[in-house]
Specification:
The complex is a heterodimer of chains A (246) and B (113).
Chain A: E1 2-10, H1 24-33, E2 38-44, H2 50-59, E3 63-71, E4 77-82, H3 85-98, H4 106-109, E5 113-115, E6 121-124, H5 137-146, E7 150-153, H6 163-167, E8 179-180, H7 187-193, E9 202-203, E10 219-223, H8 228-236, E11 242-244
Parallel strand pairs in A: 1-2, 2-3, 8-9
Antiparallel strand pairs in A: 1-10, 3-4, 4-7, 5-6, 10-11
Chain B: H1 3-10, E1 13-14, E2 27-30, H2 34-40, E3 45-49, H3 55-62, E4 67-70, H4 78-87, E5 91-93, H5 98-110
Parallel strand pairs in B: 2-3, 3-4, 4-5
Antiparallel strand pairs in B: 1-5
Classes of the chains: A alpha/beta (246), B alpha/beta (113).
């Protein structure tokens, strides 16, 4: 088994709230400097930067996972990760069909640009990626798993856009692979207040919006080879695969 | 005033058939953040919301909410409806948005004071 550092929640410049420095190229360079082996680009309600990110990351010896941070109908943020280009494309299509298409106002809400490897803007998303999908969290979970993806409710300890803020508590029947907890909360204290979460899987990531945040919070993955299947096994904690939190 | 009284007066839809229709209503609370409702809603109130997730029933039960009122024609998810029947908490509905139905309920409850 090998140990790999992973940061599975990173925003690129496509996210309206992310810094303009967050180009795929800069993110990969920073990830390399920070010694990361696995990153996931999780822009708000879009996967459009993922293919370029994967190409650039491969050259740097880093596994870049396709992902998005999706806003459910309840306005709960969920990190959704996918294995391959086919499922990413299917999920992108799902996002575009189900997001409430409110025109973006870049000067107020932020720019939403897709760039190429030369950092030239090749596309600007016209509708606000801040919008929510007309899809509830249970349905989103089912869709992600039907595409063999990984489903992780984001920053559950945060006072906004989290399971806790929007839905009061973690629904006992929700079929998530792990719960993302920010660096500010101890897992022990979360489990003391929510005993039903004791045997659940937890993960920490940076939720980086600025370049210096990439890799500032990571989870260590113990797995054989650097691939999506191993990632899933480690998150689930099976076959000797595991994750370790800071 | 009971749940049945406001259903009749405001022309509300009832998703839970006959469950809890005789519950007494003491006020209203309008919010879509369940964490806020858990912290601030009073017992005996009608909770006006657009949230339909199953957790609304648990929060309503925890806070002794008299009834949940869904706005804009939204319907409870199947497992939400099932849970509300088990818990005996009525789920009501209206095609109106939260501001309008909140105003109507306010007038109904407090106009004679």
């Amino acid at each position: 088994m090998n140990l790999y550092q992973a940061d599975l929640h990173i925003h690129s410049v496509l996210s309206p709230c992310a810094d303009l420095e967050m180009s795929p190229g800069n993110i990969v360079s920073m990830a390399k400097n920070m010694g990361l082996s696995i990153i996931a680009i999780t822009d708000h309600n879009s996967t459009l930067h993922a293919p370029l990110m994967r190409r650039l990351a491969e050259n740097a010896g880093i596994l870049a996972i396709y992902g998005a941070e999706v806003t459910t109908r309840e306005e709960v943020h969920c990190v959704c990760l996918f294995a391959d280009e086919d499922s990413r494309a299917d999920f992108q299509n799902f996002l575009e069909v189900h997001i409430q298409k409110v025109p973006n106002k870049p000067d107020i809400l932020g720019y939403q640009v897709v760039v190429n490897e030369k950092e030239e803007i090749i596309e600007e998303v016209e509708y606000s990626l801040h919008g929510a999908l007309n899809v509830g969290i249970n349905e989103l979970e089912a869709v992600v798993h039907a595409m063999n993806g990984i489903f992780i409710p984001a920053h559950i300890d945060r006072p906004k856009y989290s399971l806790t803020s929007q839905l009061g508590f973690v629904p006992p029947d929700l079929n998530y692979d792990a719960l993302e907890v920010s660096i500010n909360s101890s897992i022990e204290s979360i489990c003391i207040h929510n005993p039903s979460l004791k045997r659940k899987r937890f993960i920490r990531s940076s939720d980086a919006h600025f370049i210096e945040q990439v890799g500032s919070v990571t989870t260590t993955f113990r797995m054989e080879n650097l691939n999506f299947d191993g990632l899933l096994k480690a998150i689930k904690g099976i076959d000797g695969y595991d994750i370790m939190l800071p | 005033m009971t749940v049945l009284d406001i259903v009749k007066s405001l022309g509300l839809k009832v998703y839970t058939e006959t469950v809890g229709m005789d519950r007494e209503i003491t006020g209203g609370y309008t919010s879509d953040l369940l964490s806020d409702v858990m912290g601030n809603a009073q017992a005996g109130t009608v909770w006006i919301t657009l949230q339909t997730h199953i957790n609304i029933v648990a929060v309503a039960s925890l806070k002794d909410i008299a009834a949940i009122l869904l706005v804009k024609g939204l319907e409870p998810e199947p497992n939400t409806l099932q849970k509300s029947l088990e818990e005996g908490i009525p789920i009501l509905g209206t095609s109106k948005q939260a501001f309008e139905i909140s105003g109507m309920l306010y007038q109904l409850l407090y106009s004679n004071r």
